[in-house]
Specification:
The complex is a heterodimer of chains A (286) and B (343).
Chain A lengths: L2 H8 L5 H6 L1 H34 L3 E2 L5 E2 L5 H6 L2 H33 L5 H9 L6 H16 L6 H26 L2 H9 L4 H12 L1 H16 L3 H6 L7 H11 L1 H29 L3
Antiparallel strand pairs in A: 1-2
Helix pairs in contact in A: 1-3, 3-14, 5-8, 5-11, 8-11, 9-10, 11-14, 13-14
Chain B lengths: L6 E12 L2 E12 L3 E5 L6 H9 L6 E6 L2 E2 L10 E4 L11 H11 L4 H14 L15 H13 L5 E5 L7 H18 L2 E6 L2 H7 L2 E6 L2 E6 L1 H6 L4 H6 L4 E14 L4 E16 L5 E2 L4 E13 L2 E8 L2 E7 L9 E6 L5 E3 L1
Parallel strand pairs in B: 3-8, 3-9, 6-7, 7-8
Antiparallel strand pairs in B: 1-2, 1-4, 4-5, 9-10, 11-12, 12-18, 13-17, 14-15, 14-17, 15-16
Classes of the chains: A mainly alpha (286), B alpha+beta (343).
Chain lengths: 286, 343
Amino acid sequence: MGPGRRGGRGVRPASAEQERRDPARASAGYRLAALWPPLAWMLAFVAAPTLIIAAYSFFTRDDLGRPAPAFVLDAWRSALSRDHLALFWRSAWVAAVSTALCLAIAYPVAYFIAGGGRWKNALLALVVLPFWTNFLARTTAMQMILVRVLGPEFHSPAAVIAGLVYSYLPFMVLPLYVSIEKVPKRLLEAAADLGASPARSFWSVTVPLTAPGIAAGCVLVFIPCFGAFVTPALLGSPREQLLGTQIAVAYRANVPVASALSMTMMAAVLVLLAIYYRVKKTDGIV
Amino acid sequence: MEDLTEFDVVLDGVGKAFDGHRVVDRVSLSVRRGEFFSLLGPSGCGKSTLLRIVCGFDEPTEGRVLLAGSDVAGVPAHRRDVNLVFQNYALFPHLSVADNVAFGLRMQGVAGDEIERRVRAALEMVRLGAYGGRAPASLSGGEQQRVAIARALVTRPRVVMLDEPLGALDLKLRRGMQEELKRLQRESGLTFVYVTHDQEEALSMSDRIAVMSKGRLEQVGAPREIYERPATRFAAEFIGTANLFDGTAEGASVRTDDGLSLAIADPRSGRVTVVVRPEKLRLGAGKNAVDATVSEVLYAGATSTVILHRDGRKLVYVGAPDGLKSGDKASVGWDPADAAVVA
């Protein structure tokens, strides 16, 4: 790692005087100092809110419906009820379809850009360009387009999926582009040399070698789609809530239930991430 | 020209230019079936480009390439019966050793149990029988190279091309692999086209060698022929050690630029270079004699190498020097028949 570490291992301090000047120690101190801001940030804005929500999920409600400290499982019972689980699966389904569509659209795009020679950077900029517009504005624009094309009754899961694909496509394109570009040209030549047609070489060399990019892209798209709020709120049918919109609705009526739903969602995402890292580790090529 | 089907590779005036710069300049040569043929030259001489053209990765800008007698212009790499052993192995990192070797067979649609049998045989052949399940990344450089060779040989292509396959290995491993490659070529009976910049390697392994320089073919011939009868000054200098005397020929004698008068076997005229190999020099004998001063004696067991100087000219003698030491005066000579004369 840093030069300080090497120094610390190589030079044994012979006296207290030297020990005080030991560069390894000094740099360890600096590293701790540098670590503090992000650590404090994570504690304040990630760990603490998560713990607060976790605590809320065990609260009960007072007569006015406000959350009241307690340790009851009412909210969890509701969150894991049949109705909410159905919602859970519907959200997972919508996210899965959106992710699959993103992959199907993004792979050819990324493949094309990776082979794009001197246009690479310009094409990548075009992929990222929509991010310069506010997410809400983009989704509203999508809403207006759908009204034009399909009429005022356009609200449907399909519209939600279209909106999600539109919004999260760049999250798929970028990791795919990175991994496609990294595939060594000589491996494709080796495949051709051994008799693989371009199509077979694509499926038996390019796709497996870009598996890390595919996995990363899918995780990056699936997770926000799974918990999406703005897109289903603007494009979805009010009769068919998704997890994200349901949590928003519940928050106004029943904070403990909303908290328990949030926790189940987070647990699902963590399981997904655990699988992702496990696969990535055993992969060996990443 | 002879019957074309006797040759596995025929290059007919093949040239390649990148941005107007000629990297391969109208090369014509033929590789016989079952031959161990080397393309030898310094880096940048165009030998790797030539190999890429034969494999189908690059198209020539002029000339024809014939594989097994038929013109392969426009035939893509995957339809050419040529397998390449890449310089840096180019093993598929996501496949096991056995799957790497099986790749070509799978592409040919060979049946599963036959693939298994042939892969096992190929791995045995390169002495990696127990490595089938390993990942390429867990193998040493020499082992990876042998996997690459097994992968190229297992489909029994018409021609195996090898692009400096031993370049990344250390000296000891190289020696071992040279013998191994020679054995594999003999046992498999396949045609090998071996690209190298190592003249010793080319001399010891090849049936024939093509010497290249600056995109041009300098000479094609058997190792002994190239060593003893170099066709050009470049070939003489690049292969082995040579004592070179530049001068002007007139009949059966050459007046060298530094004033020596040398007899040559075959009369000729014009600018020439007389090439004398170190082991052809004799001490105090020979029709041509050059007086020089010993500057270094390098003992190497069976023979010694003696470096001599004369008026800034360096001479190299290899043989039994019989007690010569630095500073001694010596006369080295040779018979005209033992020297080559190149233009």
